[in-house]
Automatic annotation (TrEMBL):
Biological classification of the source: Bacteria, Bacillati, Actinomycetota, Actinomycetes, Kitasatosporales
Chain coiled-coil ranges: none
Species name: Streptomyces aurantiacus
Protein name (record): YbaK/aminoacyl-tRNA synthetase-associated domain-containing protein
Molecular-function GO terms, alphabetical: aminoacyl-tRNA deacylase activity
CDD domains reported for this sequence: PA2301
Pfam families hit by this protein: tRNA_edit (PF04073)
Domain YbaK/aminoacyl-tRNA synthetase-associated: 63-169
Length: 185
């Protein structure tokens, strides 16, 4: 199969690569019921040492910057309560943690979750966290620019490999809220 975006030697429907996905991501692919068929979620094999955005683009093509998204875990705090959430923004932007995220979560303070919290709570590897397969009760905040793309490159749950997902599939994730301006320059 040829990857819908990017220059990858190995592209396969994620439904056929459940063996290389983390448990939560594999379970989410198996259970996928969105309007986009699960077979349109594509797994591409990539080198784990190239997982960070800048290095990744150097090896797989700079044009992917405008077609990729980062998924980060944030913690919103209010009155001793902490709410964990995922934010998905275009890779060329940063998450507006202190504005859009804080207001959306109704938090007094919001920050990026620690690496231990992010990996421990998701069952995914740092540098590969993806919005597919997150804990069922987490809000998933997605920038509207991600949803508007035909295909988006995002983590696979591991540092090795990425997922290529139709943008509209992000709007069908559990507990999703699509927001304008979640990612800022």
């Amino acid at each position: 199969m040829r990857a819908p975006i990017g220059h990858f030697d190995d592209a396969t429907p994620a439904t056929e690569r459940l063996d290389v996905l983390t448990g939560p991501v594999a379970d989410a692919v198996r259970a996928w019921r969105g309007s986009v068929p699960a077979e349109q979620i594509v797994y591409v094999d990539t080198e784990p040492e190239w997982a960070d955005t800048a290095t990744f683009l150097e090896h797989y093509g700079p044009e992917l910057l405008d077609r990729s998204a980062n998924c980060v875990v944030v913690a919103g705090k209010r009155g001793g309560e902490t709410t964990l959430a995922a934010c998905v923004v275009p890779s060329a932007t940063r998450v507006d943690v202190n504005g859009v995220v804080r207001r959306q979560l109704g938090a007094r303070k919001a920050s990026f979750a620690s690496m231990d919290t992010a990996t421990g709570e998701t069952g995914m590897e740092y540098g590969g966290i993806t919005p597919l397969g997150l804990p069922a009760d987490w809000p998933v905040l997605v920038d509207s620019a991600v949803v508007d793309l035909p295909y988006v490159l995002v983590g696979s749950g591991r540092r090795r490999g990425k997922l290529l997902m139709p943008g509209k599939a992000f709007a069908e994730l559990p507990n999703v809220v699509v927001l304008e301006g979640l990612g800022t320059a």
